[in-house]
Specification:
Belongs to the GDT1 family. The chain has ten helices and no strands. It is mainly alpha-helical. Helix 3 packs antiparallel against helix 8 and helix 7 runs antiparallel to helix 8. It is elongated and about 80 Å long.
Length: 244
């Protein structure tokens, strides 16, 4: 069993390096406390890998992964749009936190990772390992491997969060969610497209969103300048009260 645990840790850890799960972990670490993110990831990973071990060891069949992947893609896109909309909706002072961030952070992270990992390559790797190895060892090792890989991304998120202003973190996390959602949708709709082309096409979504935000910001600044100029002229044209 020890050998099975070590094998599962190594395979899943390597499979997670550069995966969208690490990007999600980094994004959540920019918004929430690290132990909340790590706890949500651990719970989601343990649950998903129980299911994948059962599929590989007991059932030998797959879940409706395409439908689950589409739900995950739509969820990530919606969270990204919602985050950016909430941040741009407050013109005065600091942006108010997005509504999804006011919900219980643990359950936000848990649900996001559950959706993302169902049908992911890590799930298939775990199911494949469970067909020929001790299922308990595969479950424990795969859970440890994935949590360890995502912990690296959480550490990176903590370091970034210490050096970035709150508004930049908000916009960055919103754009990252758009990218993750677009990449998930592309991989689901056209799995044969390849990783690099999918990444290039997915980057167009947050890029378009960033350009739109920049255009809206410049329009708002122009309106504010016009209003300020009009107010200044109005004050200058008023007769001084009480003068003789």
């Amino acid at each position: 069993m020890i050998a099975t645990i070590g094998l599962a840790i190594g395979i899943v850890f390597l499979a997670e390096l550069g995966d969208k799960s690490q990007l999600m972990a980094l994004t959540f670490a920019l918004r929430y406390r690290w132990w909340v993110v790590l706890g949500g990831i651990t719970a989601a990973t343990a649950a998903v890998h129980v299911l994948s071990v059962a599929v590989g060891h007991f059932l030998g069949s797959a879940l409706p992964t395409t439908a689950i992947a589409w739900v995950a893609a739509v969820t990530f896109l919606a969270v990204g749009v919602w985050t950016l909309r909430e941040l741009t909706g407050d013109d005065d002072g600091e942006p108010s936190p997005p509504r999804f961030a006011t919900a219980a952070p643990f359950f936000v992270v848990l649900s996001a990772f559950l959706l993302a990992e169902l049908g992911d390559r890590t799930m298939f790797a775990t199911a494949a390992l469970a067909t020929d190895n001790n299922w308990a060892g595969v479950w424990l090792g795969s859970t440890i491997g994935m949590v360890a890989a995502d912990a690296l991304a959480i550490a990176a998120g903590i370091l970034l969060g210490k050096h970035l202003p709150e508004r930049a973190i908000g916009f960055g996390s919103g754009l990252l969610f758009l990218f993750i959602g677009a990449l998930t949708a592309l991989n689901t709709a056209a799995p044969a497209i390849g990783l690099l082309p999918a990444i290039g096409l997915a980057l167009a979504v947050p890029a378009a969103a960033a350009l739109t935000l920049w255009w809206l910001h410049t329009r708002r600044m122009a309106r504010e300048m016009v209003v300020t100029s009009a107010d200044t002229e109005d004050i200058g044209e008023r007769p001084a009260g009480g003068q003789r």
